[in-house]
Amino acid sequence: MNEIDPVNLTAELIKCPSVTPKEAGAITLIEDLLNKNGFICSRISRGGVENLFARWGSGRAERSFGYNGHTDVVPVGNAESWSVDPFGAEVKDGYLFGRGATDMKSSVAAFVASAIDFVSKNPPNGSIVITITGDEEGEAKNGTAAILDWMQKNNEKISHCLVGEPTCPDYLGEMVKIGRRGSITARFCVKGLQGHTAYPQLAINPLNALVQLMHSISEESLDIGSEHFDASTLVITSIDTGNSATNVIPEMAKAVINIRFNDNHTSESIKKWLERTSKDFAEKTGTEITVDTHTSGESFLTPPGQLSDIICNSIQQELGVKPSLSTTGGTSDARFIKNICPVVEFGLVGKTMHAIDERVEISQIRNLKKVYTRILENYFAEI
User: 319 and 373 in contact (C-beta within 8 Å)?
Assistant: First the structure.
């Protein structure tokens, strides 16, 4: 059997314009390839999103190594700003260009290629599971979450999992993610009393209260970090009144913040702090303040141990690089998978993800497949 070329497979995936939540043939391409090579595939559709669960081996195997990735991509932005067709998979100067090249069709291709080649040459004593979603870049309500719901209903399990998100800042093998900070967005609405700017004593300006509130919470030191996490951060992303008049004190003012929090907090503890602080400022300023929160994910950590050791050792063996263990960055679908098994993340250099002229070094794709293959070899030899 000829080995599967992950570069060609990446190019075929890029040619599928799978902007969230469109499948655009990307998952079908992977499904057909896995079906032809001994994987049992199940299509999971929910809320207009297509997802894939594929297993080689028995679902009752004691050891099952899982891989999670996504084929959906963010919009291209202004296509005229690209130097190439965003979905043309053009090769220039040793790079493969296209939306999703870095985030994360190369990783999907590399793992699918390594898994197929691995089971054909060295059938493991255990099983390999591949889960691919079409809803990672969107709301993520009908993607990996839907796959996990389906797994529970069908008594499917994974022992350990690798998420193929781009994790390396500058060079391949530099960083492995063993956790992520949580993310909570809070929307504030301050209601005052509308009036004339010439008679401010007759009004209650919600902007004054909102500015004071935003200043207070943004100056708060949430923490100084923890053993595996950097300090939590709070960013004001919007302040708005919708007031087009210069001589009117508005009745309403709104603001939005985003907090990335470490394991010193939970979303509930942060929510209570924001509500308590808002109540205090409402009483001080004579306004009404409401705060609505949405949590994208809690902070989580897979403690350094057997799984991270296998992945780091595999990287060293193939690339000669000793990776660092990190929890930096935004959220990923690992926040769902951590509920069913230990999970870590490792993938490409992420410098051009979501950017104009997104691209990946072709040599990186081939090297990533080598690392993923070595991970499978070491996993089934050691666990």
Answer: no
- Please, what's the b/e burial string for 270-303 (b: 16 or more CB within 10 A of its CB; e: otherwise)? bbeebeebbeebbeebebebebebebbbbbbbbe
Contacts of 229 (CB under 8 A, 6+ apart): 179, 181, 262, 263, 264, 299, 301, 327
* Domains located in the chain, CATH noted: 6-180+299-382 (3.40.630.10), 182-297 (3.30.70.360)
- Picking from 5, 114, 162, 67, the residue whose alpha carbon sits closest to that of residue 373 is 114
The token pair at 73 is 């991509």
d(C-alpha 218, C-alpha 257), whole Å = 9
**Among the options 23, 136, 318, 333, which is catalytic?**
136
pTM: 0.91
Structural element, H or E, at residue 281:
helix 267-285
**Locate tokens 């022992």: which residue?**
159
Q: Label residue 383 exposed, middle or buried (CB < 10 Å: 0-12, 13-18, 19+).
A: middle
Three-state SS for 261?
strand
**Among candidates 33, 11, 22, 23, which has minimal Cα distance to 112?**
33
What is the distance in angstroms between the CA of the first residue and the CA of the last residue of the chain?
28
Q: pLDDT tens, 338-372?
A: 999 999 999 999 999 999 999 999 999 999 999 99
> Would you call 136 a catalytic residue per the annotation?
yes
Query: Is 139 a catalytic site residue?
Result: no
Rounded mean pLDDT of 286-296?
97
Does residue 345 contact residue 332 with C-beta atoms inside 8 Å?
A: yes
- Cα 212 from Cα 152, distance rounded (Å): 47
Question: Which DSSP string corresponds to 153-215?
Answer: HTT---SEEEE----BSSSTTSEEE-EE-EEEEEEEEEE-B-EETT-GGGSB-HHHHHHHHHH
Three-class DSSP category at 295 = strand
CA distance 376 to 57: 14
For 171-193, letters b (16+ CB in 10 Å) and e give: ebbbbbbbbbbbbbebebbbbbe
The 10s digit of each residue's pLDDT in 103-152 is 999 999 999 999 999 999 999 999 999 999 999 999 899 999 999 999 99
Question: Which of 72, 137, 263, 361 is flagged as catalytic?
Answer: 72
Beta bridge partners of 168: 349
